[in-house]
UniProtKB/TrEMBL annotation:
It comes from the Bacteria. InterPro entries: Cell_Envelope_Assoc, DUF218. Residues 41-138 form the DUF218 domain. The chain crosses the membrane at residues 12-30. The keyword Transport does not apply. This is Uncharacterized SAM-binding protein YcdF (DUF218 family). PANTHER family: ENVELOPE BIOGENESIS FACTOR ELYC (PTHR30336:SF4), INNER MEMBRANE PROTEIN, PROBABLE PERMEASE (PTHR30336). Keywords: Membrane, Transmembrane, Transmembrane helix. The lineage of its organism: Bacteria, Pseudomonadati, Pseudomonadota, Alphaproteobacteria, Sphingomonadales. It comes from Novosphingobium capsulatum.
Amino acid sequence: MRKPPGLFRRLGSALILLWMLGFLWFAWFLPQPAPDGTRTDGIVVLTGGGGRIPRALAMLQAGKAQTLLVSGVDRQVRPAEFAAEYKVDPARLDCCITLGFDSVDTRSNAHEAAAWIARHKIHSVRLVTTDWHMRRATFDLWVVAPKGLVIVRDAVPSRPSLKILFLEYNKLLARMVAWLAGW
């Protein structure tokens, strides 16, 4: 049996069109901040973008959760330095904020957060990261988190460049393909 002429060209064109429509959706409909009234058991904030840590600290201060993990803190940062930089009462840091030093990328952030969530028996978490990063961060956390965890996405608004959106969209697709392949 012979293939119809142009079958591979049509399939390739359909894949490119699907990729382009996905990118448009990704870029136009960035995740938004969670409603301020939303309460969770804990907060996880991923370091790396402006406004992330202040947003998480504001939610902790407002009583939207009782505990906070700051994932991806540089190993050179000391708790006293963190407290001084973000004007956090040292007593608050001791009781309610965990500085996570074990992650270096989004996947390791997810593993660090999942271990913290399990250790603290958390059933719902507010995930704080930049809007363009939220989908991949949520996906990676969902993959490794305890089953049944409720993840409230609390995106920090930004003005990402086309380059950032392009790279992040392709990272998300690559991550999903890797997960489907069992990596």
